[in-house]
Design a protein that fits this description.
Elements: E1 7-11, H1 16-27, E2 31-36, H2 41-49, E3 54-58, H3 64-78, E4 83-86, H4 104-114, H5 121-127, E5 130-135, H6 139-142, H7 148-168, E6 173-180, H8 194-202, H9 213-223, E7 234-237
Parallel strand pairs: 1-2, 1-4, 2-3, 4-5, 5-6, 6-7
Helix pairs in contact: 1-2, 1-9, 4-7
Length: 244
């Protein structure tokens, strides 16, 4: 129960890796806020079935009004915000194509979703403590062809983490990032061939496919007080495909 009574917001929490984060933190005693544009009810019910308190909030993280409402509803229900997991991202629905073929509108949408979400800051500042965990990607360390907007957005998440950690340290707020490798999680599999999946496995020191539960332990560690003196860092969780 390393997260006992901590209030954790997980954006993009309704399915895939985000759902695994919700269930994993609930198992450690957290009170979980599931935020997503997708149907929230199944994930909320699963969290509650594990004996944890849960709140579902419909939220498009690219919309400032939605993120403000997310913070307001969380505070109204639980009275505090201990951890924000910025997991919401556009990935599985993207078509791989050369950078010159990416529409400007698609580029802007990827950036607006993958690099937003700090409405929790006032609450954390008032508490004198908080924890923000950004979900980056190992694509930033590798460089991935025909996927430049996603890779760039996740590189931005690493820079965002480092700079924000310096700005928020004085308020007792930690900021770290997790950089997953390619993970088998439903829609993420739709835009990669079987050959691509096997290439990812061969590139790893630990040569097997990654699944969402492989990421949960690192998230729990960063969300817990066990990592209370760690900030500004990015941890790659990809079976050793990248070393940095």
């Amino acid at each position: 129960m390393r997260l006992a009574d901590k209030v954790i917001i997980i954006t993009g929490g309704a399915k895939g890796i985000g759902r695994a984060y919700c269930l994993g933190t609930a198992a450690e005693g957290a009170r979980v806020v599931v935020a997503d544009v997708a149907d929230l009810k199944p994930a909320v019910k699963e969290v509650e079935a594990r004996g944890a308190q849960a709140l579902g909030v419909e939220c498009d993280v690219s919309r400032e009004a939605d993120t403000q409402r997310l913070a307001t509803e969380t505070l109204a229900r639980f009275g505090r915000i201990d951890v924000l997991v910025n997991n919401a991202a556009i990935y599985g629905t993207l078509k791989r194509r050369p950078f010159m073929d990416i529409p400007v509108e698609e580029w802007d949408r990827v950036m607006s979703v993958n690099l937003r979400g700090l409405a929790v800051f006032p609450a954390m500042k008032a508490q004198g403590k908080g924890n923000i965990i950004n979900i980056a990607s190992s694509t930033f360390f590798k460089g991935v062809a025909h996927y430049i907007h996603y890779t760039t957005s996740k590189g931005g998440a690493v820079g965002f983490t480092r700079s924000l950690a310096r700005e928020l340290g004085e308020f007792g707020i930690r900021v770290n990032a997790i950089a997953p490798g390619f993970t088998l999680s439903g829609e993420n599999e739709e835009n990669i061939s079987e050959q691509g999946k096997q290439a990812n496995v061969r590139a790893r020191m630990l040569q097997r496919a990654a699944v969402p539960t492989d990421l949960v332990g690192t998230l729990v560690f960063l969300a817990s007080d066990d990592s209370d003196f760690i900030t500004g860092q990015t941890i790659a969780v990809d079976g050793g495909a990248v070393v940095h």
